[in-house]
Each structure stands twice: as structure tokens, then as C-alpha cells.
Amino acid sequence: MSYSDVIAIAGGWEGYRVAGARTIVTSDAKRIEVELIALSQDEMVCGSCGGRCTSVHETTKRVIRDLPILDAQTYLIVHRRRLLCPQCGPTLERLSWLAKYARVTRRLAESVARLCGVVSVKHVAQYLGLSWDQVKEIDKRSLTERVGTVDLSNIEVLGMDEFALHKGHRYATVIIEPYRKEVLWIGKGRSRESIRPFFTQLGPHGCKRLKAVVMDMNASYEEEIKQHSPQADIVYDLFHVVAKYGREVIDRVRVDEANRLKEDKKARKVVKTSRWLLLRNSENVKGDDMLRLQELLEANRSLLTVYLLKDDLKQLWKFTCIEEAGLFWEQWHQRAMESGIPPLILFARRLKGYLQGILNHCLWPLHTGILEGINNKIKVIKRMAYGFRDHEYFFLKIRAAFPGIPG
């Protein structure tokens, strides 16, 4: 068996035969060039309409990349036929192993897409000897084919959150189906105008079908939802409310207490350096940190009050009965108002306006935990690529990472 026969068997280029093969060795790499010539003209198929063709318009040579053979990069010199289709006129022949205008074989493109799912575009390009732009476009085309369209026909519940695109407060919005854990849509910005295209895509019937939307206390999101789906219940997420409490109450009280203790440098330092200790969930505080926390709270009444009310506030999301949750809220709100701590009082007054969205959690036990997981995955994707200049490609990568759990 000749060298060309072995190459032909390994290659399996349907409809073509190997006319010749040679190996070229340079200081940088080793490459194999394989010349392919079309077989008989009996089975020619139009690349546009799929109809049978009997005549060839012209034949041109194209250099096509294929998967490496052993340790050598593989280049195909393909005598590509343009057929004379009765319906379409001159058009490229349809081939099972090569897309219409592609410069790489289907199997190489599939390998590129699989590798891009686990390593960066840069490393895939280096490994296969392709350009960065070529690898990125192959992966983007593959992602578009896999997740470019989404079925919104049966969506009844949504989750919304924002994430940072770049440093400097540039954001994007991600919308998911929380039960299936599927990313439905991503768009730049976090304003009403930014998310409006999603509701346009959802359509009037889809907007009427929505029953609930879980989100943070973003007024822009809420206003847009009420315009398109006034019947949908707004559900405020525990994570965001507690995070807001940490920023606006615990941090503010901690700073105020540190300033009050400016004459006692040792005590002031203890309070100033206790931020993460106070913000951490109590069940995650152990060992020496627990002793530090206990000593801190025993020595400072204001910090003790806001810390205990933080843990109590979380209990609101454990109720399944709206009436019981409402009664618990009234008790929590009264304690906050009677505390005499200005940041806590201000927070309680503002939170009262969002009470219905908090109580709706009893009807819809939803949370944005999956969205926080998506945000963490987004950070990994960004780090792997050292950032994305093409936001459309970036959003496709995110959607591919969360295709949803089949129902």
C-alpha cells in the first residue's frame, strides 16, 4: 500500500481521491500537503438547492486546513468544482466534509469548537497552528448554530440580574428561566431600554403568559416588567436585599462606631477591621473568628443590634404563608424603627416600599442563586479569554455554558 493510499484511508474525503501527498519540514513545523481531485461526475449535488447537477462550470484550487495527521499540520489542495445548476446557475458543489465557503474541514471546525469550550482561543490557535481570528470565528459560528435561537414559547417565570462587562461600571443584563437554569437572553446595559428588546422578542402573548419575575430591587427592571407584563408578580431576592442591608446599614454603622472611638485607637482598629466578620453569614463564622465576633458584639450595642436584625431579616424568606410573613415583617420593622440607629431606620423605611415583592416569595419560592452562579461562571469565561471585545461572541459563550436542564 502506497503512502497516498494510507493518507486517503485516514482522510476519508468523500467524493475525492488523493492525487499526491508530500511532507514539508521546516525549522518551525512539519506539514503534509495532500492534493485532492474529484471523482466521477455522476453524483454532483448543488450546494444551494440540493438538486442534482450533470455539468461542471469550472474547477478551481483551494487550500483547506484539516486535522493534523500524526505530528504534522495538514493542508488539502482541493480541486473544488463549481457546478452549473439548472435552478441556481453556477454554484459550489455540496460536500459532506467541507462547508460551502469554508477554509477548514467540518471535523477541524468541530474540534476547534470543542477545544474552545475548555481553553482560550489563544491556546487553541497556538495548538492547531491557526490564527486567533480564525479560531474565534469558527467557535462563534458553531455557538450561533447551537444556541443562536431560543424557544420562548412556554416561558412563565423569569430571573433577572446584572453583571459587570468591564471595569468602570459598564454592565449587561442576563435573563434566565430559573427552573430549567437556562440563559434566555443577554443584553448590554441595565436600563429599561436595555431589556426592552427581550420583551419585544417575547411578544404580546409571551408577556401575558408571564407569572413571576425574580430580581434585585432594580427600579428600571420593575418598571419595564410592569409595562409589558402587569400581571406578573415581582419577587425580590434574599441575596440582594441582605447585600443592600450590609452596604447601607452594617457598613455605615461600623464606620460611625469607628469614628466615635477615635480616642481609643485599639478599639477603633478592632471595629474598622471587622467588616467581613460582620457581613459573613453567622453559620460560616468559626473558631477564632467566632470569638472575635462575640467580643466585638458584646462591646458594641449598635453593631449587635444591626447584626441580629440582619439574621432576623433573612427569616422572611423562610415563610410559606403571606399572613405569617407579614406579621413577622411588622415585628421586624417595629424593632428597627425603635432601635434609634439612623442608618437602620432609614433602611427599614425604604424597604417597606418593597414589601410586596418580598412577601411574594411565599407564592414563588424563587431566588437568584443560579444567577450568582452564572455571574461566577462569567468571570471565569472573561479570565480565560482575557476579556472580550466582541460582546455578541461573549454572550454566546455564556448561553452555551447554561443551555438549560431538559424538562
Automatic annotation (TrEMBL):
<dbReference type="InterPro" id="IPR029261">
    <property type="entry name" value="Transposase_Znf"/>
</dbReference>
<dbReference type="InterPro" id="IPR047951">
    <property type="entry name" value="Transpos_ISL3"/>
</dbReference>
<dbReference type="InterPro" id="IPR032877">
    <property type="entry name" value="Transposase_HTH"/>
</dbReference>
<protein>
    <submittedName>
        <fullName>Transposase of ISGme5, ISL3 family</fullName>
    </submittedName>
</protein>
<feature type="domain" description="Transposase IS204/IS1001/IS1096/IS1165 DDE">
    <location>
        <begin position="158"/>
        <end position="398"/>
    </location>
</feature>
<feature type="domain" description="Transposase IS204/IS1001/IS1096/IS1165 helix-turn-helix">
    <location>
        <begin position="93"/>
        <end position="141"/>
    </location>
</feature>
<dbReference type="InterPro" id="IPR002560">
    <property type="entry name" value="Transposase_DDE"/>
</dbReference>
<dbReference type="Pfam" id="PF14690">
    <property type="entry name" value="Zn_ribbon_ISL3"/>
</dbReference>
<feature type="domain" description="Transposase IS204/IS1001/IS1096/IS1165 zinc-finger">
    <location>
        <begin position="43"/>
        <end position="88"/>
    </location>
</feature>
<dbReference type="Pfam" id="PF01610">
    <property type="entry name" value="DDE_Tnp_ISL3"/>
</dbReference>
<dbReference type="Pfam" id="PF13542">
    <property type="entry name" value="HTH_Tnp_ISL3"/>
</dbReference>
